[in-house]
Amino acid sequence: LVSRESKPDNTVVQVGDCLIGGKTPVVIAGPCAVENEEMMVNLACRLKRMGVRMLRGGAYKPRTSPYSFQGLGADGLRILAEAGRVAGMPVITEVTDVRHLSEVCRYAHMIQIGSRNMQNFGLLKEVGRVGYPVLLKRGFSATLEEWLLAAEYILAEGNQQVVLCERGIRGFETYTRNIFDINAVAAVKNISHLPLIADPSHGTGRRELVLPVARAALAAGADGLMLEVHPAPEHALSDGPQSLPPGDLAVFMEELSGAGAGR
Ligand code: PEP
Ligand code: MN
Question: Is the complex ipTM higher than 0.90?
Answer without folding.
Answer: yes
